[in-house]
Amino acid sequence: MGRGRKQLMQETWLKPNRLAILIGCIPSLILGAIGAWLLLLFDSANHWSWLGIIMILASLGLVALMLSQLRWPRIAYNDGSVQFYLRSGPPIAVPVEIVEAFFAGQGPAHLPGLARQPQTVNLVARLSQRHTEWARQDVKPALGNWCDGYVTIRGSWCEPLDGELIRKLNRRLKELKDGIEEPSKR
Prior knowledge:
Strand content: 15-25%
Oligomer: single chain
Radius of gyration: 21 Å
Shape: elongated
């Protein structure tokens, strides 16, 4: 596709942490296994077998919900916008010209059930301070933070972060921004 055409497909820039999502399915699968055990142990007229059916259905629903998270990236690009998937519902779409750079940061992992949180490498996107409407957005705290024009994506909930990935993000961002500036120079 040429630079002048609208991009019809979403370009994934940062994937979710597949391992964390799959590990998150384990408690739900255990719930389903207990439900199946109850269903096999008691006859269908018993209230324990009904509890088993409910547990199996709840397990299937929870696993489906967790696995659906594999479909959504943490950051994507589509039609002139950098899309941040840091909350339920549609992504927060920021015009690409407002995103200035990506860099590594560090912060708590925000893992459930741990009183003392380990530190993790985070990805931080710096947004233009001239565009105050993008300074703050509500996001799911476990996935990240959006404050004062800095978008933090928690490293525990995205693919492994390293210098090469961050350089790749900044190169792609520059390519897109250069493509926006070129037509205006003509």
